[in-house]
């Protein structure tokens, strides 16, 4: 299988190198891939300042091949590059001939300019999805997924999600075991499915500036499947239990207990989405049995977390 990367000026290196590493690793493991890099000019300067050399002649791609467009640095899609009509026509012709086209992050805009998003589900980086929907009203932009495949048009969210997209394509061609081998060789922690959220709880609740809360979150992130005491979390944060609880709620909108539950629930959903039973997922993330997991999955998390009892004299477990 030939993979042709279309290099756009100011492209993000990880948008390119992440998928390229996946296909290169697959090739090393015995799943043959040939990687080619082309552009409208020979020299391309990446967003990170690395200069790349590309082919200017179209290398040719058959129905079994993939053409991928990495994203680039630009605060808006409107201010991004405008490939020539010839390049856009080649994308359209490749897809019409039965080939697959894909994009990472803002690369979806190139597919939109070629008309390949019309009538299809697609996605992009969460900062750009509203603009993508406005620019291409005939597209159906998915708001919070890692990647989308629709009619041999595959689009992914920002930056690192290109790795997930490429692993998905390897799995489609060679089976999930092959993709798992590639992910293991690359030391990829978890191969995400396309329907998973772009924004995990570990990122979503890290926008605050409280060092004590960050330190407590580090402890919970690393040990969320284990019983944890508020005393130990407060010690990790260098503050009292009452101060940590107050700052945690102010910073994240939830108590340490609720934060741990959220991490457990997200990880359990990931495992279930990859074929685990509810019972197996519950035990893997630290629940004593599946009942609590079923309750958490069946109800909507409260907008305002419960307040701890100020009369408590013991150190409760951050556990369920």
From TrEMBL:
The protein's name in its UniProt record: Transcriptional regulator, AraC family
GO MF term list: DNA-binding transcription factor activity; sequence-specific DNA binding
Keyword annotations for this protein, in alphabetical order, are:
Transcription, Transcription regulation
> Domain HTH araC/xylS-type, which positions?
214-305
PROSITE patterns referenced in this protein's UniProt entry, alphabetically:
HTH_ARAC_FAMILY_2
Q: Name one Pfam family in it.
A: HTH_18
CDD domains the UniProt entry points to: GATase1_AraC_1
């Amino acid at each position: 299988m030939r993979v042709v990367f279309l290099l756009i000026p100011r492209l993000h290196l990880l948008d390119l190198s992440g998928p390229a590493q996946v296909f290169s690793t697959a090739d090393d493991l015995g799943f043959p891939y040939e990687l080619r890099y082309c552009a409208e000019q020979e020299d391309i300067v990446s967003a990170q300042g690395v200069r790349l050399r590309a082919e200017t002649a179209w290398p040719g791609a058959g129905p079994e091949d993939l053409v991928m467009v990495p994203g680039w640095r630009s605060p808006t899609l409107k201010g991004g590059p405008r490939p020539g009509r010839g390049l856009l026509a080649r994308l359209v012709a490749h897809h019409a001939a039965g080939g697959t086209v894909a994009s990472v992050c803002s690369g979806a805009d190139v597919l939109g300019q070629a008309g390949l998003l019309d009538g299809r589900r697609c996605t992009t980086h969460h900062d750009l999805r509203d603009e993508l929907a406005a620019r291409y009203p005939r597209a159906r932009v998915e708001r919070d997924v890692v990647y989308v495949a629709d009619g041999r048009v595959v689009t992914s969210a920002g930056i690192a999600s290109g790795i997930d997209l490429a692993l998905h394509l390897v799995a489609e061609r060679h089976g999930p075991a092959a993709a798992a081998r590639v992910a293991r060789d690359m030391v990829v922690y978890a191969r995400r499915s396309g329907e998973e959220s772009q924004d995990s709880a570990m990122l979503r609740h890290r926008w605050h500036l409280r060092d004590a809360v960050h330190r407590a979150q580090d402890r919970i992130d690393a040990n969320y499947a284990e019983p944890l005491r508020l005393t130990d979390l407060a010690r990790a944060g260098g503050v009292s239990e009452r101060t940590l609880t107050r700052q945690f709620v102010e910073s994240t909108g939830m108590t340490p207990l609720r934060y741990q539950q959220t991490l457990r629930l997200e990880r359990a959903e990931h495992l279930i989405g990859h074929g685990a039973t509810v019972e197996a997922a519950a035990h893997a993330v630290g629940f004593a049995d599946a009942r609590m997991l079923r309750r958490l999955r069946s109800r909507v998390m409260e907008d305002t977390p419960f307040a701890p009892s100020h009369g408590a004299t013991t150190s409760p477990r951050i556990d369920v």
